[in-house]
Amino acid sequence: MAKKNIIDEEEEEMDLEVEEEIEEDGKKKVAKKLEDLPGIGKVTADKIRKAGYGDFRKIAAASPHEFSEVAEIGVETAKKTIAAARDALEMGFETADAILERRKNIAKITTGSTELDGLLGGGVETQAITEFYGKFSCGKSQMGFQLSVNVQLPQEKGGLDGGCLFIDTESTFRPERVVSMAKAKGLDPDKVLKRIFVAKAVNSDHQILLADKAEELIEKHNIKLIVVDSMMSQFRSDYTGRGALSERQQKLNKHLHQLQKLADTYNIAVYITNQVMDRPDILFGDPTAPIGGHVLAHNATFRIYLRKGKLAKRIARMIDSPSLPEGEVVFSIDEAGISD
Asked: Could you tell me if 112 and 146 are in contact, meaning their C-beta atoms sit under 8 angstroms apart?
């Protein structure tokens, strides 16, 4: 107990010293490097850099408890550090024209179908979560394979010349299918496979951990797409019954926010597939509904409902989007992949 009090007193003294350095002539100096932040000395700065918090954006987006554990500082000190990082980034109100200018950095990944690209406003968007849901064999996983290939195309051909992280929760990833799609696009299959990093999630906690640890690979291998196939499979298995629903939704919400944070921070696209259920209360019309509840519905930027047509045809319907109108298009899936 005495040791803990000494540490707390040292932290308080350190905070006061740093505050004195930042406060000058009654004006608050804006931090320019990690060591300028309250509570962050040289040793702590080196520690958080190794933990992946090397820039102000990551610190500003962190929670106090999360950052206090990483930096090994008190929660109150962590709050001051995060506040200073946000001040340095000017994370307040800004005019809409500035946001419009920043959104010009957003890119699109082609699906392979001009009709489907049109429905999505040009393709699968970066800095967003795009959800495709539907019954089994409707083409959700096939779309994931196709995007993992197409993201490697040069920009003039609808790609981002980047790699892909593929989180497989249903044991459905098939490299043979990726090879056939890569050949159809005129790409070297061996090179394409080497730029797709696959991890099989054994449960929902492992799935969350894979997303939390994704930053290292994103920075090292120029990752421009994250695929989660499927989002709810492990959550559905781990949390059964109404008593576990609250905990499941809380963890799901945190997981989705982490994926969105990665999308925003690194300007990458997130594509997720989702399972469905049949609603018994719907007597007329299509009873198919996505699982995940309101948490998933609110976090997905774009929601597309897929269903099978005749032969190789698939029907995609826009269910929700912040900027695009509802619509429905037809495309096909064959040996070469996704096409009109």
From this structure: yes
Closest by CA position to 75, among listed 86, 84, 83, 64: 64
Which residue is listed with tokens 């990944």?
109
Q: Any bridge partners for residue 9, and if so which?
A: none
What is the C-alpha to C-alpha distance for residues 201 and 273, in angstroms, rounded to an integer? 14
CB 68 within 8 A of CB 77: yes
Per-run averaged pLDDT (10 residues), the chain, 340 residues: 45 41 50 83 86 81 86 89 83 84 93 97 97 94 98 96 97 97 97 98 96 91 96 94 92 96 94 92 83 95 95 94 95 95
Using CB atoms within 10 A of its CB, is residue 130 exposed (0-12), middle (13-18) or buried (19+)?
buried
What is the C-alpha separation between 110 and 123, in angstroms, rounded?
5
Candidates 210, 113, 122; CA nearest to 160 is 122
Q: Which two tokens stand for residue 15?
A: 């905070």
pTM for the full model? 0.81
Cβ proximity of 69 and 51 under 8 Å: no
Nearest to 324 by CA among 303, 294, 339, 298: 303
Can you tell me the distance from the alpha carbon of 249 to that of 230, in angstroms, rounded to the nearest whole number? 16
